[in-house]
Every structure is written in structure tokens, then in C-alpha cells.
Structure to design on (280 residues):
């Protein structure tokens, strides 16, 4: 197991309630885990426990343990954990602060004390894989939203993390930017074998690409399973205010009427099921 969360509860210093309550979770190497939950359910708080920002930089009452590749995060520095877990946040602007694309990617590497040849190699790789080759000398604020977020991902990837945690990386992007970032996430998981933990409201995407999904509600995991299992629970998801894929909503109506046996179908699967039904 690459990540093990054991009986984790966390309350921010000045908060009255716990933001995470008795979380137990394991993430396997190479797995793609999706995290769903309404606003304020604890998604970002959970993400911050994976690289030790909680409890090292953000204080509070921390109970239980988080192990990353066997390291207990309580006893391991954020600097060390950051070489294993890369964190990408919602707003790319908050993560970019260098004058050129190239410097942005090199920045973290120079802090690792790598030799110039290795820095160059990793920089080229990170820019190629994120589709930013040719933009090396651009001023990051001049990039499109999708390019900025891919640059934030490139800077993190250059550190060669085994795990990439992305907290709503597409929520501030236009449709093209969203598409670019999600395709990149799929590629990093399927072709580079990087373990992915993704908070994402695009449930169509999670239904088709995640290996497993957890649903948080008021700091607790209330649903967990393969997307096919979790998205079968349409009533629970709707009650929590989670956007259910259109194909699942439609299939759910057919299921209630006894016409289909499953609701958790993506668009292609729903169309195929309906075609078969109509032929009969
Ligand atoms: N720095 C903080 N101090 C106190 N409470 C916080 C802080 N950050 C988040 N919270 C609270 O923790 C809960 C979970 O927040 P968060 O993890 O940001 O949820 P989500 O990412 O699912 O929207 C919310 O009730 C929120 O108000
Ligand atoms: Mg959040």
C-alpha cells in the first residue's frame, strides 16, 4: 500500500467541529482514486494530510496516522514527503511565481540539489509530457488557464513523485482547459503509472476513468467502491448535492421503472443498452 490512513480525525485549531472524522483509507500503487463530496465535506483537508502540510504547517488536533510509502507523516518532513506526493491545487496562479515556464519547472529541482544535467533532463521530460514544449521562455501569467494548470503539474512532476494529489484542478478552467488537464491526468496514470488522487466535480470523468471513488460527507467517508458501485447510489449522491452524470440520471429513471437493471452507466453504455432494448 502506498498510502494508509488509519483512524484519522482532524480538527483545525480554531474550529469547533472535526473536519475529518475517523477516516480509514488505503491507496494502492498505480491506483486512480476519485474523491467526491459537497463543499465543506473535508476533501481539501484530506488532501493536505497526504503530504504532511497537515499536521506540520497547519495545526490542529490530529488523531490517528497517515503512512505514505511506510513513512508516518507525523514523523516525516513536508520536504521529504513532497518528493513522494506532489500536490496540485485549484488555482494555478497561486502556484506559479517564476518569470519563465522553464524557471518554474526548474525551481523545485534546484532546491533538491540535483546536478544541472539531471535538472535539464527532468525539465524536458515534464514539459514534453504536459504538452508545453516550445513554451519554455513564456511568461507564465500569459499562458491560458489550461496551460497554467499543466505548468503547475509539470513543476510537481519534475520532482518525480509517485503520487499526484490534485484538488479540483479543473474548477477554474474553461472547457478546453478542463479537457486538457483531465486527459493529462489519465495519461499520467495509465502510461506513467503514477498513483492519482483526484478531487473532481466532473463525475462523468470519474465514472469512466477512476478505479475507485470515495464520497465524503461532513468529514466522514460515507460511500466507497468502484465507480460502478458508488454511482449506483443515485439517491444518496443527489441528497448530498453531488452532480450525477446525465447518463446515470437517465438510466436511474429507467431502473426505477424496471426497464434497466443498472443506473451506473456512462453515455456510451447507456446508448448501447437502449439500442439493444429498442431492437427487442
Ligand atoms: N483553515 C481552516 N480553519 C478552520 N476550519 C477550516 C479551515 N479550512 C477548512 N475548514 C473547515 O473544514 C471543513 C472542511 O473543509 P474543506 O476540507 O475545505 O472542504 P472541501 O474541500 O470538501 O470543500 C469545513 O467545515 C471548513 O469550514
Ligand atoms: Mg476543497
Amino acid at each position: 500500500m502506498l498510502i494508509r490512513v488509519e483512524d484519522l480525525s482532524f480538527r483545525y485549531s480554531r474550529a469547533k467541529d472535526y473536519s475529518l472524522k475517523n477516516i480509514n483509507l488505503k491507496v494502492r500503487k498505480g491506483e486512480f482514486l476519485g474523491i467526491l463530496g459537497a463543499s465543506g465535506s473535508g476533501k481539501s483537508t484530506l488532501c493536505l494530510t497526504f503530504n504532511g502540510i497537515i499536521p506540520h504547517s497547519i495545526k490542529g488536533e490530529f488523531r490517528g496516522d497517515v503512512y505514505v510509502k511506510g513513512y508516518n507523516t507525523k514523523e516525516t518532513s513536508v520536504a521529504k514527503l513532497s518528493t513522494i506526493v506532489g500536490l496540485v491545487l485549484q488555482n494555478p496562479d497561486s502556484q506559479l511565481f517564476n518569470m519563465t515556464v522553464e524557471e518554474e519547472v526548474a525551481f523545485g529541482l534546484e532546491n533538491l540539489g540535483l546536478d544541472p544535467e539531471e535538472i535539464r533532463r527532468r525539465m524536458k521530460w515534464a514539459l514534453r509530457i504536459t504538452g508545453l514544449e516550445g513554451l519554455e521562455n513564456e511568461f507564465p501569467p500569459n499562458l491560458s488557464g489550461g496551460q497554467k494548470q499543466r505548468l503547475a503539474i509539470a513543476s510537481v512532476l519534475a520532482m518525480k513523485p509517485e503520487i499526484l494529489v490534485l484538488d479540483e484542478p479543473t474548477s477554474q478552467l474553461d472547457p478546453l482547459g478542463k479537457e486538457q488537464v483531465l486527459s493529462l491526468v489519465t495519461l499520467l496514470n495509465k502510461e506513467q503509472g503514477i498513483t492519482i488522487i483526484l478531487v473532481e466535480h466532473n463525475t462523468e470523468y470519474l465514472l469512466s476513468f477512476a478505479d475507485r471513488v470515495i464520497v465524503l460527507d461532513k468529514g466522514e467517508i460515507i460511500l466507497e467502491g468502484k465507480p460502478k458501485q458508488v454511482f449506483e447510489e443515485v439517491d444518496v449522491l443527489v441528497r448530498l448535492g453531488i452532480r450525477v452524470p446525465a447518463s446515470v440520471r437517465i438510466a436511474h429513471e429507467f431502473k426505477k421503472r424496471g426497464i434497466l437493471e443498472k443506473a451506473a452507466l456512462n453515455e456510451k453504455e447507456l446508448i448501447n443498452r437502449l439500442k439493444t432494448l429498442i431492437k427487442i
Observations:
- The chain is about 40% helix and 20% strand.
- The CA atoms of residues 37 and 43 lie 7 Å apart.
- Residues 175-190 form the longest helix (16 residues).
- The beta strands are 3-12, 20-27, 32-37, 60-68, 71-72, 85-88, 163-167, 195-199, 212-217, 220-225.
